[in-house]
Design goal:
208 residues, mainly alpha, 9 helices, elongated
Length: 208
């Protein structure tokens, strides 16, 4: 997977791109486990297998690395939502499969949502990252908006169904459910939140 921020990577060689990707991946895993404040350069260098000069060449500041990690986590979320079995997220069945896939792998959320956990931390401590956080959520919600919009265009959802509002509902249900799952170490809150959101969306199903 290629991280975003293409302007900063265009001049890198294939080897340089691979090194950058390895640094971002290692930093993402460490930050997810320990948080931004408790992750330092030494830990990242060791996990990525790079030297200090390699790390600073690609990421001269911690802020630049955190932004890259935010983009990488957003890319990961978007990629998972574009899995072949989910299609375009433009049917009730596809949305159910999406929810089921996360509920079935709820052990992966024991540290919270990979993107949401980082977003919640940096949006309070580093306001300069707010745009990167907003962009990540926007890309995520755009997938739902597009799918729900197609469902309304095909007449599967009634005209009063608002794809933007329903996309907010789905992402909020996931984020809240993942947090409760993390706190309780139990997938029930996530399941209830996602199925409740889907039940509400299905209440807009057009009569056949």
């Amino acid at each position: 997977m290629t991280t975003t921020g293409q302007a900063s990577t265009r001049k890198l060689t294939a080897k340089g791109l691979a090194t950058r990707e390895r640094i971002v991946r290692a930093a993402a895993e460490l930050i997810y486990e320990h948080g931004v404040q408790n992750t330092n350069n030494e830990q990242i260098r060791e996990a990525a297998g790079v030297s200090g000069s390699q790390l600073t060449r690609h990421f001269p500041t911690k802020e630049s690395l955190v932004r890259a990690v935010l983009a990488w986590q957003a890319d990961s979320i978007v990629a998972r939502h574009q899995a072949p079995e989910l299609g375009e997220l433009d049917s009730f069945a596809a949305l159910r499969r999406w929810a089921d896939s996360y509920i079935a792998s709820q052990h992966m959320l024991r540290g919270g949502c990979t993107f949401g956990s980082l977003a919640a931390e940096v949006v309070k401590t580093e306001p300069s990252h707010r745009d990167a956080v907003a962009d990540g959520f926007e890309r995520w919600q755009a997938l739902f908006r597009r799918g729900l919009g197609r469902m309304r265009e095909r007449g599967e959802l009634r005209p009063e169904a608002d794809p933007a509002a329903l996309a907010h509902l789905l992402t909020a249900a996931f984020q809240g459910g993942a947090l409760l799952d993390q706190a309780a170490e139990d997938s029930t809150p996530l399941r209830d939140a996602l199925y409740g959101a889907l039940d509400y969306i299905e209440s807009f199903a057009a009569a056949r």
